[in-house]
User: Which sequence fits this backbone?
């Protein structure tokens, strides 16, 4: 594989996938956290009107929803994945820019081999973190838990 192919097929694909996954996890985290906050505040207000049956039912349902959202945030770790994917994407971008500008350590004769080694090290760390996160999710979810499909970011973007 030559330099251009590696930059496009490995680095750019990973940056694209990680950036997309980071954005999706950020979006889910913010939506669920906002719903949790709004419902928590609404419950506090509605309790003062709890003498009405519909309000009691609504307050109870919102309490259940807040607990469920908290569980989902804990189980799927949207914020953790959002930040981790963003960091990995930015690390790959930095390596690519250093390589393209010939900035150290890419000012040596073996600059392509150095790039591959450093990029694969970054992706290896991400793979380990992904594997640990997936194992923790399975453990937290129990044997019969339904889990969202996950993709190992070191796979090519075409295998989603």
Assistant:
């Amino acid at each position: 594989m030559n330099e251009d192919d590696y930059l496009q097929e490995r680095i750019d694909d990973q940056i694209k996938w990680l950036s997309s996954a980071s954005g999706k996890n950020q979006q889910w985290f913010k939506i669920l956290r906002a719903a949790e906050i709004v419902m928590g505040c609404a419950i506090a207000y509605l309790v003062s009107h709890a003498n009405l049956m519909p309000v009691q039912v609504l307050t109870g349902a919102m309490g259940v929803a807040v607990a469920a959202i908290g569980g989902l945030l804990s189980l799927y770790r949207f914020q953790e994945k959002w930040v981790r994917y963003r960091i990995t994407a930015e690390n790959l971008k930095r390596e690519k820019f250093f390589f393209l500008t010939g900035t150290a350590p890419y000012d040596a004769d073996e600059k392509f081999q150095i790039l591959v080694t450093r990029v694969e090290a970054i992706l290896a760390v991400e793979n380990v973190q992904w594997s640990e996160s997936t194992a923790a999710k399975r453990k937290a979810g129990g044997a019969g838990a339904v889990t969202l499909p996950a993709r190992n970011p070191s796979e090519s973007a075409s295998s989603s």
Summary: The chain is about 75% helix and 0% strand. Residues 3-141 form one domain. Residues 143-150, 155-160 have pLDDT under 50 and may be disordered.
